[in-house]
Amino acid sequence: MRIAIIGSQDRVEELKQKVSSAHTLIEVKNNQFEGYDLIFDLSFDKDNSRLPIYAALKNTTVIVSAVNQTVQQMIASCETTLSCTIGGLNCLPTFINRGLAEMTSLNATDQSLIEQRFNDLDWEIKWVESRVGMVTPRVVCMIINEAYYTVQEGTASKEDIDTGMKLGTAYPKGPFEWAEQIGIHDVKNMLEAIYEDTKDERYKICPLLTQEFLNTQMTAQY
To answer: How far apart are CA 64 and CA 105, in angstroms?
Structure first.
């Protein structure tokens, strides 16, 4: 299978670890997508300008990052008719190369066609409702946010919280380890998107998390 990949280098590398050498993977930077069976756009919910190009492709499956926005929202904003099959994937860093691919689809027909492609990849799919944040990102980012509130209140240190969550709940990572691996900017953007969608106070960003994000931005400028 010929597979095109678009995205930041860390996400591209994570996807490459997930796809076997039986398939041809090509990083595409010139928007020339003819001749590919499958396209992974891992930056789509940050930049959906390529949608009109994808829409015209026939017999092509396009899998896009659909965490900060749903596929339906992004398609509606472009007002275009689709010839391709399109699905949404949880593409947050560290969530691509996992046993299950957390995905959404537009309809049952697209879902069936996507399953055929992913059977060829030997990937197992978990279909979830098409909502901002899907399922796993919502849960993980909410836990990270609560952990920041706990530190802000002086209840425990980051190290103690990470240790307690791994030993007490058997989590594979502590919330601050997860935040570091996902990236504080992605955690903040995810929480903002979910809060805007739900207005649920559980996703209202902790001021300490915001401050660390701003500190990271300032450091990156120098």
So the answer is: 10
